[in-house]
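Continuing from the previous page...

OK, I double-checked the sequence for Fimbrial protein against my notes and this is the correct one:
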Amino acid sequence: MKLISLCLATLVAGLVGAADGTLNFIGKVVNGACKLEGAGDNGVINVSMGDIPLSRLKNSQSGTGPAVGVDIRVKDCEKGTYYIVVDGPTPTGMPEHRVLALDGRGKPAGNVGILLTDRTGTPLSLDERIDPQHDPRIEIPVDGGSGTFRLKAFYYTWDKAHMDPGDGNATARFTIMQE
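Thanks. Re-ran it with the corrected sequence; updated C-alpha cells here:
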C-alpha cells in the first residue's frame, strides 16, 4: 500500500500548474497592394490646419479659409489604378455629406467644419461607396511603384452669421482601394 501511494504521489507531483497566460495574435490578412508612407505605425497622418480668424471665414465669398495641402503617399504598390475614399461624420443639419464635422472634444468652433477637395477643387463626398467617376485616383505604372493622393483641406462655414470660435480638430478615416 505504501508503494502504491508513493507512486501516485510521484505522478501527481509532476503535474503542477506553473503559470497561465494568453496568446494575442496580432496582424492583418490584407488584399492591400500598398504601404502608407510617412504615416505612423497606426496609419495616422497629422494635418496642421493652423489658426484661422473667424473674420477670414466670414469675409470669404465661399466661406472657406486658406487651402492646406494633404498628401497621402503610398509605396511598394502593385501595378494598377488606386482610389481613395474618405469617411467621417458630417455636422448636424448639413444636407450634403461633403463637410467633415469637428470633433466634439473640448469646445469645437460653432458652424465650422472641414471641407476636403481633390487637387482640382472638387469636394469629396464622405461616407459613400467608391465612385470611379469622381473619387481621386492615381495610376501606378509598375509593380513596386509609388504614388501620391494630393488633396486640399479648408476650414469651412455654412452659416457666416452664427459662427463661434473654438477648437478646429477633426478626424477622418480613409481607405485606398485598387481597381
